[in-house]
Input
Amino acid sequence: MKKLFTLVCTGLSLAATAQPFKKADVIIRHVNVVPMDKENVLADQVVCIDKGKISYIGEDKGQEIKTQGKVVDAKGQYLMPGLAEMHCHLPEEKAVPRFFDLNLAAGVTVLRSMRGKDWHLKFKGDRLYQPRLYLGAPVLPWDTVINEDHANRLVSDYKTRGFDHLKLLSIKDSNSFKEVMQAAKTYDMPVCGHMLWKVNYETVLNSGYSSLEHLDWQLEAYDSSVDYYNSYLALAEKNKTWHCPTFDFYQVVYRQIPEEQLLQRTGMQYIPDSVKQKWMESFAAGTKKRGAEAIEKMKKEQAVAIEKKRRMVKEMSDRGMGLLVGADPEIFAVPGFGIVEEMKAFKDAGLSNYKVLEAATISAAKYLHADKEWGTIEKGKCANCILLARNPLEDITAVSEVKGVFLDKDYYSEKELKARLN
Output
């Protein structure tokens, strides 16, 4: 009787173990998982995806698995959460599908768009073959006094239509800022953007401003006095204000990287030669207009400024302040692939590989209040994950070697990703 009971229990156990494989849409076998809930690697795992969710994670014991789902043999590869590009700008409408293709090929499964237009809303929601979108509303008027009624009409309209956040570039005065922030609170709409020159930093940080883009104003604070800068940091930390440094924008625009090197960056093979030529001509025209001597002076000054920004970001990281990865791509930039360069810049600032990966995954999810949905590899989370050829915890540049992308219930191999681009 005891033997029979043991056999029955064993049979039930095997049946329960087999169930997630049987029902799964996608099964990833022999994969090393970088879960990003902590700094570790789970070796030789089997991961099941069912209806766009991770339904099972466990040791791959080499057992025979019977399933009607797609089986991906990922032996020797690394599965981690998809990357979140937190400062991008959508291109003209006809170029958007290509923009999405490039981002997915680079392993970007989340995009925060920072300067909205009405037509952006047509790309909102669950759509085939595009990253998850968090859309900024059209930029609020910066040269107009905004009263209470105006602020409420603007914010409620943007919220109702489906925009996710407001971005401020500038604002007319402190009272306009107060009205916008009150309306944003009323309609539960996050506000982010630049530090505002016409509003003191205490007012901005105490207002609920969710993230600050770039570090230009902070650089001035850093240069003014140690006490002044430390008071800024303390208040930003207290208010849990996030920072998105956009290092790579400055590295490129202020010519910290030779043009020949820029043209060799990952993803440049997907940019038409005609576009690269226009970039080169633009730099040449800038040099001619300003003069070679002025350009060299600018490069030296900006090299110093960028080094100071690196120190700021390292201190923010050491203090546990929230950091976001956003490349803010412009010239000499490949959509999606710019996040690799931005992550390398974070590494140059002195952050560990884990801290850099954290900023590009689970930190972004926490900032967007979506960490229960995505940002880590865990049972029940959305299956927006990427396969890498190497371990990114050992070498941050491993994020540039994407072997496959899992987007909800769909899987796109490296071959399929590249085929769409070519």
User: Anything to note?
Assistant: Confidence is low (pLDDT under 50) at residues 1-16.
